[in-house]
Amino acid sequence: MDPKQTILTMLRSGRDIISGSELSRRLDVSRVAVWKQVQRLQQCGYEIGASAKGYRLITDPDIPYPWEFPGREESILHFQQLESTMDTARQSARSGCPHFTVVVAEQQSAGRGRLNRSWHSGSGGLYFTVVLRPQIPPALSPRLNLCASLVLAETLRKDYAIPARVKWPNDVLVDGRKIAGILAEMEAEADRVSYVNIGVGVNVNNNPTPAEPGAVTMQEQVGSPVSRKKWLAAFLDSFETRIDSGNMGSVIGAWKTLSITLGRQVKIVTLQGETEGRAVDVDANGSLILQVADGSLKTILYGDCFHM
Predict the structure, then answer these.
(1) Which position has the higher pLDDT, 213 or 173?
(2) Whole-prediction pTM value?
(3) What is the pLDDT of residues 162-209, one digit of tens each?
(4) By the 8 A CB rule, do 280 and 297 touch?
(5) Considering Cα of 94, then 75, then 126, then 156, what sign does the dihedral take?
(6) Measured distance CA(7)–CA(175) in Å, rounded
(7) Domains delineated in the chain
């Protein structure tokens, strides 16, 4: 266990003060080494009071440091600022990082959504990418995108009573306003997936409305600031369980129950053009099925979806 994690666990135990000698015994290091670890925590934003009696945790920052996630310390890569978590995750994936590595940044200077649109990454939001190495054919990889949006919406509904719904292919909305967006990127060879990166941006305690007036935040919905650490831990646990369950076939059906796209007239925009029709279904691969003006059905693999 990371010594910082051990110290924080003891300081959060409910006792007012933990002596330096007790921390020293627990960590099996000198009191000087304990003091250095406490200094490192203070430099990371933890307010820790020190006296002759010992140490006391006064406040701790809502920052998703790796040691805040027991069991995931080695798989979470935290950065203060990146151009894009997707770019860093791609580099990590190509360098052989393990399945379910998570790259998270406090801010992104070049965050992006679908079709290279900018994703505004203000302070207080959550911006991260999960590296997956699924044992599935490339054709089924879009399921992972829908799985992420499904788990995200389920977590908001179950843990925060936020009435989140999913919009094909990658948005999570609350009363028609975006609370989260997802971007997927895959690298594959023939019939083998090398990796799929799932980039996620969640409006938690940030203020996206100046740039995105159609957005909403968790804080606005709950009525008070939300712990980003707690939310991220809940999402990662649920997402990993769903991904590794071996029952990805159930994702499409579950996603449909929360969809606000199916049954609506929509316009799909891609780099090649636009298609309008009524969204009637999503197939086993995650593609949207439209009934177009002449009554025929058209399968849409990707694109931006606008509800008419």
Answers:
(1) 173
(2) 0.92
(3) 999 999 998 999 999 999 999 999 999 878 899 999 999 999 999 987
(4) yes
(5) positive
(6) 42
(7) 3-59 (1.10.10.10), 66-257 (3.30.930.10), 265-307 (2.30.30.100)
